[in-house]
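quick one before i forget lol
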Amino acid sequence: MDTYGYLYSPDFNETFPSSYLIDEDDDSAGSLQFRITYTLEANRNYHLIATTYDPFVIGEYQLIVSGPTSVNLSYL
């Protein structure tokens, strides 16, 4: 499936999706997958929005977060 990714901080505003947008990507990971590379700051909230090109296409996806220290993730 063709995925898109959007990274926001400190919040995601559904009414104005361009506000607080840090980065977005479509196909940088190859095979129609997104890749966002960003250095996260400690004690700051981030929102990752993952979606598909077609609103009627759904499926499983994997999120990989890597770096020199741990990150706490929560699903909303």
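fyi Residues 38 and 48 are 12 Å apart (CA to CA).
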